[in-house]
Design goal:
Oligomer: heterodimer
Low-confidence stretches of chain B: none
Number of strands of chain B: 0
Low-confidence stretches of chain A: none
Distance between the termini of chain B: 27 Å
CATH architecture of the largest domain in chain A: 3-Layer(aba) Sandwich
Number of strands of chain A: 14
Largest interface: A-B, 30 and 29 residues
Structural class of chain A: alpha/beta
Largest sheet of chain A: 6 strands, mixed
CATH superfamily of the largest domain in chain A: P-loop containing nucleotide triphosphate hydrolases
CATH topology of the largest domain in chain A: Rossmann fold
Radius of gyration of chain A: 21 Å
Radius of gyration of chain B: 21 Å
Shape of chain A: globular
Strand order of the largest sheet of chain A: 6-7-8-3-9-10
CATH class of the largest domain in chain A: Alpha Beta
Order of helices and strands of chain A: EEEHEEHEHHHEHEHEEHEEEEH
Structural class of chain B: mainly alpha
Number of domains of chain B: 1
Largest sheet of chain B: none
Number of helices of chain B: 12
Mean pLDDT of chain A: 90
Mean pLDDT of chain B: 82
């Protein structure tokens, strides 16, 4: 269980990344979605014990992160995949995992070896395990990154923007991998790609400008926009009148717009089944409109 | 405690591998080995009126110089100059990026998320430098020892080993770890190297007399390490008893140098802790 209470983080220079954020996260796969600069990575880093908040409290499985002892205890329970994962280019994949396992506290060599072999198989990097990391592709680096996060059988896995830079097939593969791992531990998946959340998370929060804008199940976010999603086909003029254009499809002699809002009676609008992305855009539009 | 010991040994093992795989240490070790081994061939070859071996034999006959000690002195004089200079001046530049590389490679954030204390991290990184450099010294001294024995003849192995291991080991322990610690706060490899070059250059300018070992405490503190580098000049070929390379003043130099390194380590540790708390 992760408990965040009135969390604020203000960086030097006055940048307020988090503003009185409250959140409780249970088991399973939890999605954290928001635009760039919303505060997602700041929150991830605080939960991972890397940076400290300006004020507020954070407890990870009962450990208070405001103390050094609490942070150290929490770090033994968690695995972290940062947004910008750095690797040692001259180590092989197997060596890197062994190094990280030692630093995580997997002291027994036999246990370490077994965990590494299992994780290499899980992330399908067995064939390249003895190649140097500098020869790995972007997708392979991400997979070795999630493998190192899973070392030591963590209770909490924090994954920050894991699919950025991956091709569609790799993204699907990565999501499936995380879904399989959600059975073993709590996963917090932070992303600005809504599609990553929709396929795998049973619980999510939307944050914007350092605050929680929505907290609940993906289905609840979708329900908020039901009745406001339309397809408008025109010969060229982009729909306006306060409508938000989600996507544009070029047809042979016309353009089809997927829009959010209430179209004018003169628009030949067709009601559509809402998606999580629609719900997210609707929420952000309402928030930005009221801000 | 068990976790800390395990982490420490892990960092040392992998720092050792990474230093050697980055090739700079390999290149400098091979260069020093070739130079010191090649000097054996030069010493044994016919030069002018005769080889150095013949010169020594003549000195033994004419002036009572002890031949074996004279040859030992020749080996120390010939090999210590390049090795001592390399360890005092080049090694620090090669290892300056030990800690900044974690920032540059982006592994810093990952390491910060692990249950790894700053103290274990610093000790592990600097110990890794020490072990990596000592491995190079052992290789070079072995090859050089065999080369000189085959090319020139028997010499005092104890004095030879003392110079390489105690003299060289001292320089690695002091200058290698000092450079790694001084550059710890730099964000990139390039800035780390520049900082070490500046500090070493400043030390040579401000305590230039330290090279002769006459500068008192300053000579022991200076990264130029004059009393250690110039140790071989204390060798006395006329004495009836061989002069131990590891003498009282060497021990004093090592002790003062270790205190210097420890103080720098404490400052770096405190700075890193403060930075983590304020992040």
């Amino acid at each position: 269980m992760i408990e965040v209470h009135n969390l604020t983080k203000t960086y030097a220079g006055g940048v307020r990344a988090l503003v009185g954020l409250n959140l409780e996260i249970g088991s399973g796969m939890f999605g954290l979605v928001g635009p760039n600069g919303a505060g997602k990575t700041t929150l991830m880093r605080i939960l991972a014990g890397i940076i400290q908040p300006t004020s507020g409290t954070v407890r990870v499985f009962g450990h208070d992160l405001s103390t050094a002892a609490g942070r150290m205890a929490a770090k033994t329970l968690l695995g972290y995949l940062p947004q910008d994962l750095g690797l040692y280019p001259n180590l092989t994949g197997r060596e890197f995992l062994d190094y990280m396992a030692i630093l995580k506290g997997v002291t027994e060599a036999g246990t370490r070896r077994r965990q590494i072999e299992r994780l290499l198989a899980d992330v399908r990097l067995m064939d390249v395990a003895d190649r140097k990391l500098k020869t790995y592709s972007g997708g392979m680096k991400r997979r070795i990154g999630v493998a190192q996060a899973m070392l030591g059988d963590p209770k909490l896995l924090i994954v920050d923007e894991p699919t950025v830079g991956l091709d569609p097939e790799e993204r699907v593969r990565f999501r499936n991998l995380l879904s399989e791992m959600a059975g073993r531990c709590t996963i917090i998946l932070s992303t600005h790609i809504v599609e990553d959340i929709s396929h795998s998370c049973n619980d999510l929060a939307v944050i914007g400008q350092g605050r929680v804008l929505f907290r609940g199940a993906p289905a609840d976010l979708i329900e908020q926009v039901r009745g406001h999603v339309w397809a408008i086909t025109t010969s060229g003029d982009r729909p306006t009148q306060g409508l938000a254009v989600v996507s544009t499809l070029q047809l042979q002699h016309s353009i089809q717009y997927r829009v959010l809002g209430m179209p004018a009676p003169t628009d030949s609008a067709l009601a559509l089944e809402p998606s999580l992305e629609d719900g997210y855009i609707w929420l952000m539009r309402q928030h930005n409109g009221s801000a | 405690m068990r976790l800390a010991v395990s982490q420490l040994s892990g960092i040392i093992v992998y720092e050792f591998r990474m230093h050697w795989r980055r090739r700079s240490l390999l290149v400098i070790t091979l260069t020093m080995t070739v130079i010191t081994a090649a000097l054996a061939l030069v010493t044994a070859s016919e030069v002018g009126q005769g080889s150095v071996r013949q010169l020594i034999d003549r000195l033994v006959q004419e002036q009572g110089v002890r031949g074996a000690e004279m040859l030992t002195f020749t080996i120390l004089f010939a090999t210590w100059a390049p090795v001592g200079a390399a360890l005092a001046f080049v090694l620090p530049i090669l290892v300056a990026d030990t800690i900044p590389l974690d920032q540059q490679l982006g592994t810093r954030e990952l390491l910060d998320s692990l249950p790894l204390s700053i103290g274990v991290y610093l000790i592990g990184k600097t110990a890794g430098v020490f072990v990596a450099a000592i491995a190079g010294i052992v290789f070079a001294l072995a090859v050089t020892a065999v080369s000189w024995r085959l090319a020139v003849g028997p010499y005092d192995l104890i004095s030879y080993l003392q110079m390489w291991l105690l003299g060289g080991g001292t320089l690695v322990a002091l200058n290698g770890t000092l450079a790694a610690l001084l550059a710890a706060g730099q964000p990139t490899r390039r800035r780390a190297v520049v900082l070490v070059i500046l500090v070493w250059g400043l030390a040579m300018v401000t305590v230039g007399g330290a090279l002769t070992g006459d500068g008192g405490v300053a000579s022991y503190l200076s990264p130029v390490r004059g009393p250690i580098i110039m140790r071989y000049t204390r060798f006395d070929a006329y004495s009836s008893t061989p002069v131990m390379f590891f003498s009282a003043d060497m021990a004093q130099g090592l002790a003062i140098g270790l205190i210097e390194v420890a103080l720098v380590a404490i400052v770096v540790w405190a700075w890193m802790r403060r930075r983590a708390q304020r992040a």
